[in-house]
Design a protein that fits this description.
293 residues; alpha+beta; 2 domains; 7-stranded antiparallel β-sheet; 14 strands
């Protein structure tokens, strides 16, 4: 698997501290030998297990970025430096065909905008003329106290104004319909695995069934404006979790220093629906879930 961690050298120290659960800030100190041993024997193997469980990039895709893993604790740490709690994120990016698809989408979108905006202008001009004529007729009817005619003209005026207000919405919907088959989807996947997290959630999601999961939530993607698309999101919680309400959850973890216990595992995946299912099948979930105790 071709892996190219971003800014590995710069982030090495920060990642080691973060992976080991060191809080930001505080007085810097040298890690103890016990902490160094704990990181080497517990934290580092756990992070390595997660990284090895990630599937290779599909054909035509690349690994765009991933969390670098430090081989040891840095020379200076702050706070408790050996806690088994970390988050590993890897992002995959599709390269094959994407630029051509984007170019074609831009062309179709521009054509649709031109066509439907011109139609909207023509329709607007016609309605404005009708509105002006109706308003003038309404004034005459009011002056002559023709109540039935006034009532009819007021209703006609309301319909014209309603049609005018609907033009922007109808135009956008027409453009969206024209570009629907050309939307660029399935361009990336992000996988994040967090070990011993104490909170998790996915707003506006719905539950679905997942083997061995304490909770599993799904948030479907969809259209964003005339030519955009958002990915689907999955949040799967394994281990000791309790429902905190409103699609939020609390994880119960061992708070003792130097504890090797894994009590919660969070898996988050964002990507096209069919692609996320493919990734879940290819991930080494047996190895990841094997850390739970």
């Amino acid at each position: 698997m071709n892996r190219t961690p971003l800014l590995l050298t710069i982030l090495l120290v920060l990642t080691a501290a973060s992976a080991a659960g060191a809080p930001p800030g505080g007085e810097m100190r040298s890690p103890t030998q016990e902490e160094q041993n704990f990181y080497a024997s517990v934290v580092l193997p756990a992070m390595t297990t997660v990284r090895k469980a990630m599937p290779p990039a599909p054909r035509g895709w690349v690994v765009e970025s991933e969390t670098p893993i430090a081989p040891a604790l840095p020379a200076q740490v702050s706070g408790e430096a050996a806690v088994l709690r970390f988050s590993y994120t890897i992002t995959y990016k599709r390269e094959a065909g994407v630029e051509d698809e984007k170019k074609r989408l831009d062309e179709v979108h521009a054509e649709a905008q031109k066509k439907h905006n011109e139609a909207a202008r023509t329709q607007t001009d016609e309605l404005v003329k009708r509105k002006t004529a109706t308003e003038q007729a309404l004034k005459k009817a009011a002056k002559k106290k023709k109540r039935a005619e006034e009532k009819r003209l007021k209703k006609e005026l309301e319909e014209i104004e309603g049609n005018l207000r609907a033009i922007p919405r109808d135009t956008e919907q027409a453009i969206m319909a024209d570009v629907d088959d050309y939307l660029v989807r399935d361009t990336g996947v992000t996988v994040r695995v967090t070990v011993n997290d104490t909170s998790a959630g996915l707003a506006d999601a719905r539950y679905f069934s997942r083997p061995k999961a304490a909770y599993a939530l799904k948030k479907e993607g969809g259209r964003v404006g005339p030519a955009g698309w958002t990915a689907d999101q999955l949040l799967i919680l394994y281990g000791d979790w309790e429902d905190a309400g409103k699609n939020a959850f609390r994880g119960k973890v061992d708070q003792k220093p130097l504890s090797p216990q894994v009590r919660t595992i969070t898996v988050f995946i964002a990507g096209d629906k069919s692609r996320t299912e493919q990734f879940l099948k290819q991930m080494g979930m047996k190895d990841i879930l094997g850390m739970l105790k």
